[in-house]
Amino acid sequence: MSMQRTPEPELMDAPAQARAYAEADFSEPNQLFVDRFLGSFDLPGAGRLIDLGCGPGDICIRLASALPGWVVTGLDAGPNMLALAAEALAASGLQSRVDLVLAHLPAEAPQGPFDAIVSNSLLHHLPDPATLWQTINSLAAADCYVQVMDLHRPDSREQAQAMVDEHAADAPEVLRQDFFNSLLAAYTGTEVHEQLAQAGLSDLELTCPSDRHWMVSGRLRR
Ligand SMILES: C[S@@+](CC[C@H](N)C(=O)[O-])C[C@H]1O[C@@H](n2cnc3c(N)ncnc32)[C@H](O)[C@@H]1O
C-alpha cells in the first residue's frame, strides 16, 4: 500500500527557489533523459520538439545541441524560471533554434503540431494530471515521439528521506526540501498507468529508468 500523495505548489517560481533549482546539478538525470530519448528512436534529421514545463531549460539546450536540424520550444508557466532558461540559452549560443514560451497549461497551450514532445518533472506539479496527457494528445503530430519522466512516490516518508540523503546529501537545504516535497507529490507507476489508459495513451511504454524515476515513452501513430 503506497503512501498518500501530498501535492506541492504548482509553480516553483519564487526567485530564490528558481535560482537554487537552476544552479543545482541535475546533469545526471537530465543527461539520462536526453540519452534515453536519442537512443530510443530513429529520429529524422529535422522536426519540431516541445519540452513541457522546461524550467531552467537544461534539457532543451542538451536536446537542441544533440539535434542540429531540430527547432525546440521550451514552455513554462514560471517567468523567473523562464528568465533563467533565457540566460542559459544565451550562454549556449543556440538561440536561433530554441524558443522559450511563457504559458500556463492547460489554458495557454501553444500552436502545434509537434513531431516530438518531452517533459521532465512536470506531472507532479499539476493539480490535475490529465492536463499533461491531454496536452500531449492535442499537440502531437500524426507520428510523434513522446518521452515523459518524473519521480516515483516512495512507500513512506522515511523512504523519501532516505532517497534525499542518498541523492542530495551535499545539496543546499532548499533543494533537499524541494526534492523531499517532490517525492511526496509524485505519482506511482500504477497511477501513471491508469492516467495513460484514461487518456487513450496506453500504447506508450512505462519503464523505471532509475530507482526514483518512471518514464513513459513511445511513438503516437494516429
Ligand atoms: C520541477 S520543475 C522541472 C523543470 C525541468 N523540466 C527540469 O527537468 O529541470 C517543474 C516546472 O514546471 C512548471 N510548471 C508547473 N505547472 C505548470 C503549468 N501548469 N504549465 C506550465 N508549466 C508549469 C514550473 O514552473 C517548473 O518550472
Order of helices and strands: HHEHEHEEHEHHHEE
CATH superfamily: Vaccinia Virus protein VP39
- Label the structural class: alpha/beta
Each distinct ligand: S-adenosylmethionine
Instruction: Tell me roughly what share of residues is in helical segments.
Output: 40-55%
Return residue spans where pLDDT drops below 50 for at least 5 consecutive residues.
Answer: none
Q: How far apart lie the N and C ends?
A: 37 Å
Give a short account of the largest sheet: 7 strands, mixed
In the CATH hierarchy, the architecture is 3-Layer(aba) Sandwich
CATH topology: Rossmann fold
CATH class: Alpha Beta
Average pLDDT level: 95
Describe the structure.
The protein is of the alpha/beta class and 222 residues long. It has one domain: Vaccinia Virus protein VP39 (Rossmann fold, 3-Layer(aba) Sandwich), CATH 3.40.50.150. The chain has helices at residues 15-23, 27-40, 58-66, 79-92, 130-139, 157-167, 173-185, 189-198, and strands at residues 47-52, 70-76, 98-102, 114-120, 140-151, 205-210, 213-221. Helix 1 runs parallel beside helix 4 (79-92) and helix 6 crosses helix 7 (173-185). The chain starts with 14 loop residues before the first helix and ends with a strand. Residues 10-13, 26, 53-55, 59, 76-78, 81, 104-105, 120-122, 125-126 line the site of S-adenosylmethionine.
